[in-house]
Amino acid sequence: MKKNKSLIFWFMLPTVLSLLIIYVYPVIRTVAMSFFKVESLTASLSKWEFNGIDNYIKIFGSNSFRVSMQNMLLIWIVGGLLTLALAMLFAVILTSGIRGKKFFRAAIYMPNIISAVALATMWVQYIFNFDYGLLNNVVELLGGEKVKWLGTDMKFWAMTISYVFGSVGYYMLIYISGIEGIPADLYEAATLDGASKATQFSKVTLPLMKGILKTSITFWSINAATFFLWSKMFAPIETEESTIVPVIYLYDIVFGGKGITQRDAGAGAAVGVVLTLIIIVIYGVMNLMLKDTDLEY
Amino acid sequence: MAKYHERINWKKEARLLPGYIIVILWCVFTAVMVFWVFGASLSTSREIFSGKVLEFATGFHWENYITAWQTQNVSVFFANSLLYATVSCAGVLLISAPSAYVLSRWNFTCSRTIRLGLLISMSVPAIMIIMPLYTLAVQWHLKGRILLIALYILMRVPYTTMYLLDFFSTLSRSYEEAAYLDGCPPAQTFWRIMLPLVQPAVVTVTIFNFLSVWNEFFMALIFTSDESMTPVGVGLLQIVNSMKYTGNYGGMFAAVMIVFLPTFLLYIFLSEKIISGVTGGGVKG
Questions:
Q1: Which of B23, B187, B211 faces A104 most closely, judged by CB atoms?
Q2: N or C end of chain B: smaller count of CB under 10 Å?
Q3: pLDDT tens-digit readout, A188-203
Q4: Bridge-partner residues for A36, per DSSP?
Q5: Could you tell me if B218 lies within 8 Å of chain A, comparing CB atoms?
Q6: Closest Cβ opposite residue B49 in set A16, A132, A250
Q7: Are B216 and B123 in a shared domain?
């Protein structure tokens, strides 16, 4: 087929322009801005003052930012372990030959489809509510005393648990497609050789799902680094130490939050760059640790 | 023989029992949550606080929905979200489909760079782009609904292009050869013949774009300056925040249901298509 240069040009132009306008230019400008003193986003370029790595020194010296990084780390590790383990558990159960697989799969994935704001509101206003919430009803039924799930000391875990609930379904779908991609005769051979279900899982399923595990960990890391919505829903009006995450910190210093007297867009850009670097490092480490060995099966 | 068969099955089901219990518990929890919120949306605030949500002692309070829809402005949020989602779904197809087709057919200068750029931009976090976009919007005096629609369209371009590209590359070139021999110009060949052939992929990718724009929150929070252009996510947050003053819990839960239902209903009818689309597109092991 002949190459038609004008067709290629006109068909590609809108996409290339979109990429340039919404990704290439903004990313370059954000990286540049992180090395300048910029108070307001609307300040013109002539008002930018180069200040080297001062923005980075400022954010790492800020107590709120350090707390937000700790929270993010906890969400990444604890939330990640919970989410990926539950997702794997559900994937194994649903591929073990139970009835109603399609229904269960659809039901467990459902929270990923609905508006996360609605889902978070259901958790905040019902499950964790002090007066009439589901958890406190269960606690009272068991003879315990009502718990302040949304009090300062429990709030972070309340947020993480509900976020895990909302995320499990997606990773479960990825794992199911991974498990279903493994040929059944491998398991038959393993059964004939006397391998138990647990051994089959650790010696057949997991090694053959290296690539999928890598993908899921990378996705989770991106989600943990850019965690925002659930934190906003659990502390909608004033940012709190218990739920602050880096993107909330960025939002507050760039667009103004309570208690922020001096906006600092340059520092906000530095937060963005730090988070992106974290994502890139995790991606690189994952590629090194879980090398695709290209197993033939 | 039949009996023998049955016994094996029961053994199998018994072995699977722990698995059944775990997934059933999870699903029951989900169902309880949704049903309770639905019940609360039909109750008075007093009933909610005294823990009598599913008794409906004073009847069904459908007026909660009217309050939410009219006085709490959910109708405005809802119309905005519908507008944003439908217009951006159409817009992104107009931009992405032709490029996906061209990328799947020919190698040309920069075609590898563009593919790589699309892939990378799919994982660029929103925080890296919103600040300069905010500046641009102010400089170019873009605001309101047009701005959000433009942003949603542009943001969905990489995913949509990559998704459609996979499907265009599975099409045989004999279609274009036949069209060429019949004297059909290449651009028309694309719109009339090739695009309709990937219709199933177009439907799937449009569902995902719709869901993603309907549920979008971060950009909406930053780029909407007043209530008249607020979509459902940010609108619901505002309703929850104003509850401290209104104390209308029934109305708030009604608003939650109104925001929850559209994507939920879409999911009930299209769950198979959506689920196969999640793992069929970008995700590769």
A1: B23
A2: N
A3: 888 888 888 888 888 8
A4: A50
A5: yes
A6: A132
A7: yes
Domain hosting residue B88, numbered range: 74-247
Closest-approach residue (CA) in chain B for A93: B19
Query: CA nearest B185 in A: which residue?
Result: A7
The answer to the question of residue B284 being in a domain is no
CA atoms within 13 A on the CB side of B75: 6
pLDDT digits (tens, 9 = 90+) for A70-103: 999 999 999 999 999 999 999 999 998 888 899 9
From chain B, pick out residues whose CB is under 8 angstroms from the CB of A99.
Answer: 13
CA distances from A219 to A170, A182, A238 (A): 10, 22, 29
Whether residues B16 and B96 share a domain: the answer is no
Residues B21 and B132 both lie in one domain: no
What residues of chain A lie within 8 A of the CB of B186, using their CB? 4, 7
CATH code where residue B208 lies:
1.10.3720.10
In angstroms, the separation between the Cα of residue B110 and the nearest Cα of chain A is 10
Q: Nearest CA to CA, how far is B141 from chain A (Å)?
A: 12
Contact list in B for residue A93 (CB cut-off 8 A) is: 16, 19, 22-23
B128:A30 CB<8 A: yes
Which of B42, B65, B88 is where one domain is finished? B65
A49-56: Cβ within 8 A, 24+ apart: A51/A266, A55/A264, A55/A266, A55/A267, A55/A269, A55/A270, A56/A270, A56/A274
Q: Give residue-wise pLDDT tens across range A110-162.
A: 999 999 999 999 999 999 998 889 999 999 999 888 889 998 889 999 999 99
- Say which CATH topology domain A52-289 has: MetI-like fold (1.10.3720)
Q: How many domains does chain B have?
A: 2
Partners of B273 in the β-ladder: none
User: What is the tens place of the pLDDT at every residue in A218-266?
Assistant: 899 999 999 999 999 999 888 888 999 999 999 999 987 766 777 889 9
ipTM of the complex: 0.89
Nearest to B22 among A89, A178, A237 (CB): A89
- pLDDT score of A44: 81
In angstroms, rounded to a whole number, what is the distance separating the alpha carbons of residues A232 and A241? 12
